[in-house]
User: Fold this.
Amino acid sequence: MEIQVSATDYSASRDKLLTLHKVDKVFGRDVVALQNMSLDICEGDFISLLGPSGCGKSTALRLIAGLMQPTNGFIRWEDGRQGESLSVVFQEPTLMPWATVEKNVWLPMRLKGVSFAKVRDDIREALELVGLAGFEHAYPRELSGGMKMRVSIARAMVTKPKLVLMDEPFAALDEITRFKLNNDLLQMKAKIDCTVVFVTHSVFESVFLSDRIVIMAARPGRVMQELKVDKPYPREEEFRTSNDYAAYCRAASQALKEAQEGPRQ
Ligand SMILES: Nc1ncnc2c1ncn2[C@@H]1O[C@H](COP(=O)(O)OP(=O)(O)OP(=O)(O)O)[C@@H](O)[C@H]1O
Assistant:
């Protein structure tokens, strides 16, 4: 198996969704969170942003979400409709404790003025998709950490967004729950046919989930390399225990190490 690691990205074969062009983000006078970040995000991509703490992963995500603007460079949506079909999932599920599961999932529709009755079926479908059928009337306090995250993902997916941005959504979960959610996330992505940009510290998670791993380094935050995980979906448990998976994990770890320390002599 040939593993491709490159300084360029692998976007050529799909339609472009959006482009980051030479993006810098500077906080205050001298905190350079991102420097010269260019990336084409294409329809159907599962991109992981992988890198150490402080390399600007969350900043990149917030820029893509339109929550803040680049200091230099630009972000361009190909259809010109920035953020119209975009959802964000954060590390904390951020559920409303006073509302039931189904009312939590309703939130993005409710903010657009859509009545609960009108989207009840969509909400049921989203909850089914995340494996929470039957928990519609439960309250967040009655759920485990993994289930709360499932609600948060259902809330992100209920609008059937084109792009889902996920900022370390599984970092606080135990390993088994994390594996389960990784599997389920791939199924959900396939079902709603979206594009995902996923921030993680975990080499293992990035290899299992992504078809493109963007490796970043800190001080200043920048893209160092991109690794293509050339394994078709659906990916099942066998992939996790395969030699190919181990080889990809080694390649990603090595690329990450080089991003921090410079190339092997
Ligand atoms: N609002 C802000 N004001 C000032 N500095 C900020 C702000 N947001 C981020 N930074 C700084 O920008 C740099 C990149 O932060 P960012 O949170 O994007 O990194 P990260 O790779 O997501 O880190 P982590 O993995 O720890 O979440 C850090 O040095 C951080 O302290």
